[in-house]
Amino acid sequence: MAENFLIILLQLLVIMCSSHGRELGGGTKNNMNHHMMNNHHDIDPSLMVFLTMKDLKVGQRMPIYFPKRDPSTSPKLWPKQEADSLPFSLEKLPQLLQLFGFARDSAQAKAMEDTLRECESKPIKGEVKFCATSLDSMLDFAQSILGKDSGFRVLSTSHKTKSSVAFQNYTMLEDIKEMEARKMVACHTMPYPYGVFYCHSQTTQNKVYSVPLEGDNGDKVEAIVVCHLDTSEWASSHPSFQVLDVKPGTSSVCHFFPADNLIFIPKVLQSHAGFTSM
Ligand SMILES: *[C@@H]1O[C@H](CO)[C@@H](O)[C@H](O)[C@H]1NC(C)=O
């Protein structure tokens, strides 16, 4: 009963989320407007999502980029049967482009290629990854990592106020909470003609926090932050190292999750284990 309820909630959530999915080929055009306000002149504001564990404290103020995506133009998750009826591989890209009617040199073609390439890239050591093209396959993957017997919770960043400001300074408020998460699966939306989530899980130590934020304009956000304690296997080209000015393996790397990304963690049996973070 409770599980069914969770699944229904989750479906609603995912449908909601997919309707906020990244626009296909959505560039960083809009970010340029904000570029002048950026402290780090050479860094794209959309990368201003990284922090280290020592930045995670009440009163900390920092510029953060929270994308606000236009629901009307974003791709939806397809039912499993429909999604499974199409190939999902770089090799079949020409066929897919034809099917969706995208020119080879279009922005959409580039986005699809990047997504397929990312999905086919080898996981790093200690990582399991999977690109989900339907809700069912995402849930199956999450369940396979978290364990068949454990229920799970879904966490995502939620915006408590509506505003169009995507990049500004936020201050961390009281009540930063660490969520109990011995295992976790993170799923990120990918640019594609239909909903695709890049899901992955690392066996190295991670921490998940819920962090209340207040923007300079009064915006309230209940943000989900994931911290990776061991970054020694990460490519040195990972943008977080540039933003934080650290080297792989020398520092924890945390990042704020945009609202349309999902974190699955095992359900903890306690009286108040609810769906509050949804
Ligand atoms: C954040 O605040 C700093 C210091 O007050 C300021 O220099 C910077 O321009 C602000 N950034 C944004 C994105 O508003």
TrEMBL record:
Domain of life: Eukaryota
InterPro entries for the chain: BURP, BURP_dom
UniProt xrefs under PROSITE patterns: BURP (PS51277)
Protein's UniProt keywords contain Cell inner membrane: no
Limits of the BURP domain: 50-267
Keywords from the UniProt entry: Signal
SMART domains reported in the protein's UniProt record: BURP (SM01045)
Signal peptide positions (record): 1-21
Record keyword Ribosomal protein present: no
Family annotation (PANTHER family): BURP DOMAIN PROTEIN USPL1-LIKE
Protein name: BURP domain-containing protein
Organism: Arachis hypogaea (Peanut)
